[in-house]
Recover the amino acids of this structure.
């Protein structure tokens, strides 16, 4: 069933209450999600985006109940990733001659995925499409936010920015709008989405926000392709993105570790205690990276000014869980964060130094010392932990 957004604009998407993972298993979904598609019914009828393939039958049948599919004049595909384009093949079987407006890269993506040569119309930033009743669509390319093919579409007069993935969240809200959502969950899901999907492109986010603001287009509603539609103070999410893209950090230090026989866990807890004593106002959080959700941990790391990472030594290296986590950390390209490394060992003891080297290579400003604990934490082992805590707190000032 279509849901009115404003005037002749409706939501025709799919609320995915049961979704548990996204991007394969790389992104955890804790509070459902949605794939938002929109219908604009002016003199011309326009469909903006579709939904993921598992819901293509629902999507097409739902649309059929609302409108004659032949009445769709234009389809806008803001982004070719399959969660937004996956229902296109089912839809285009019904209306194969309907023109599709998208970026040049999106043509590559759609042809590559679906092997169809639909009637593509390539658009660039500033291109417009007249849809009657004095209204236009204006296209804004959003390359690498978060794919090379991404774009946003702006509807004049109604002042709605259909931003696709940007400003979205994986968050199911039946009532659709931001003012109807649980505000704590909304903020949590929005920053998790930014930290885990958009953070690597923060320099581009900054430039794109400047460009959108520079267009001086009034924005009454931001309608992304996932999660809530921002109608109450929609600029708040642009402001948040500007903050998050600007080397964001709070007064928080996050400790991440894995452990074999609890020595590294104990070291992590002692390090947390020491940091708290030295800097009582700092929020300190500790996570076992093989037990806690990696995307939730990354969100906490994104919020942090500093991190400490620890592993036991096994086979002259670090645990695979820590190695995998570090590579994920590196891929997110967080900036302006301090770091420290620690490790436990029985024999050769390479882990702390290996983590330190990785963090330095990944661009983290890393304290010179590492904390190494042999076998288990004893009174004489507290000194390197205290030193590491002191050095990290100092470096984090
Ligand atoms: Fe929501 Fe990049 O797809």
């Amino acid at each position: 069933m279509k849901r009115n957004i404003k005037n002749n604009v409706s939501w025709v998407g799919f609320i995915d209450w049961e979704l548990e993972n996204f991007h394969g298993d790389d992104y955890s979904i804790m509070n459902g999600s949605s794939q938002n598609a929109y219908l604009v019914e002016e003199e011309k009828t326009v469909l903006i985006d579709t939904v993921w393939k598992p819901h293509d039958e629902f999507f097409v049948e739902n649309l059929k109940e609302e409108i004659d599919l032949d009445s769709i004049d234009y389809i806008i595909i803001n982004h070719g990733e399959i969660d937004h384009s996956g229902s296109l093949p089912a839809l285009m079987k019904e209306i194969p001659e309907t023109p599709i407006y998208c970026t040049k890269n999106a043509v590559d993506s759609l042809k590559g995925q679906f092997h169809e040569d639909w009637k593509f119309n390539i658009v660039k930033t500033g291109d417009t499409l007249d849809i009657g009743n004095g209204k236009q669509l204006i296209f804004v390319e959003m390359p690498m936010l978060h794919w090379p093919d991404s774009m946003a579409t702006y509807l004049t007069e109604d002042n709605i920015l259909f931003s696709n993935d940007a400003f979205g969240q994986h968050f199911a809200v039946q009532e659709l709008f931001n003012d109807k959502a649980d505000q704590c969950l909304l903020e949590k899901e929005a920053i998790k989405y930014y930290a885990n999907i958009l953070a690597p492109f923060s320099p581009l986010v900054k430039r794109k926000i400047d460009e959108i603001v520079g267009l001086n287009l009034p924005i009454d509603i931001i309608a992304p392709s996932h999660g809530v539609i921002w109608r109450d103070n929609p600029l708040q999410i642009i402001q948040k993105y500007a903050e998050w893209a600007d080397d964001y950090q709070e007064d928080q230090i996050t400790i991440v570790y894995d452990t074999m026989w609890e020595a590294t866990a104990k070291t992590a807890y002692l390090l947390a205690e020491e940091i708290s004593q030295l800097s009582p106002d700092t929020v300190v959080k500790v996570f076992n990276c093989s037990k806690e959700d990696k995307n939730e941990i990354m969100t906490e790391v994104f919020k942090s000014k500093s991190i400490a990472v620890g592993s036991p030594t096994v086979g002259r290296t670090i645990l695979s869980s820590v190695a995998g986590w570090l590579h994920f950390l590196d891929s997110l390209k967080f900036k302006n964060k301090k770091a420290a490394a620690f490790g436990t060992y029985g024999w050769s003891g390479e882990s702390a130094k290996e983590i330190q080297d990785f963090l330095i290579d990944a661009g983290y400003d890393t304290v010179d010392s590492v904390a190494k604990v042999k076998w288990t934490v004893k009174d004489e082992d507290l000194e390197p932990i205290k030193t590491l805590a002191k050095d990290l707190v100092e470096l984090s000032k």
Q: What stands out?
A: Residues 317 and 351 are 5 Å apart (CA to CA).
